[in-house]
Amino acid sequence: DGGITQSPKYLFRKEGQNVTLSCEQNLNHDAMYWYRQDPGQGLRLIYYSQIVNDFQKGDIAEGYSVSREKKESFPLTVTSAQKNPTAFYLCASSALAATNEKLFFGSGTQLSVL
Amino acid sequence: GESVGLHLPTLSVQEGDNSIINCAYSNSASDYFIWYKQESGKGPQFIIDIRSNMDKRQGQRVTVLLNKTVKHLSLQIAATQPGDSAVYFCAESRSGSARQLTFGSGTQLTVLP
After folding, report:
1. Predicted confidence (pLDDT) per residue in A32-58, tens digit
2. I want to staple A4 with a disulfide (CB 3.0 to 4.6 A). Which of A25, A26, A111, B12 is the partner?
3. Number of CB pairs < 8 Å for A and B?
């Protein structure tokens, strides 16, 4: 089945620890995105990538890092610099680079702090 | 309608009734609008989209209406079913070098038996 796979579904982070969230897509989409969702709020863009080996900061990039070494993969690292990391993280992709119309989303990763 | 904040707007409807979820946007340059449905603990699913050169678009049991004059978007769900219970988000974007979707905070729809 084509789609976007995020793992793990639940993740716990200790103080001072970096954690990495996985996102893989087999839709052959050029563009990939990471969003953060807090309870009762909309989605906020963390990072996006329109092409392999290139990515741009979104609205709330501080404390996060990404890489795009392969078209299929766009992992997100939540660093120790992110002081309030507890949130639901959503990865998405779209077919058209330089646009993000009609995003296809993964099932999300819930990150909590121990 | 949707708003920024910690408390989601809520809408409760009886099963079988029609639902109308509203969304206001602020950027008059926005030319693409999209509705997503998100069930608890899951990622958003695409419902329907519309471009600014249209006022209305219909899908299966859903209709999106766009009023550019007052910058208002609505999603109508016909014959609402229990499976329609979810949070509904609108999002907008405008053409440019890096088109980005801006999401509203969502509306919680609850379908009553």
Report:
1. 999 999 987 889 999 999 899 999 999
2. A25
3. 67
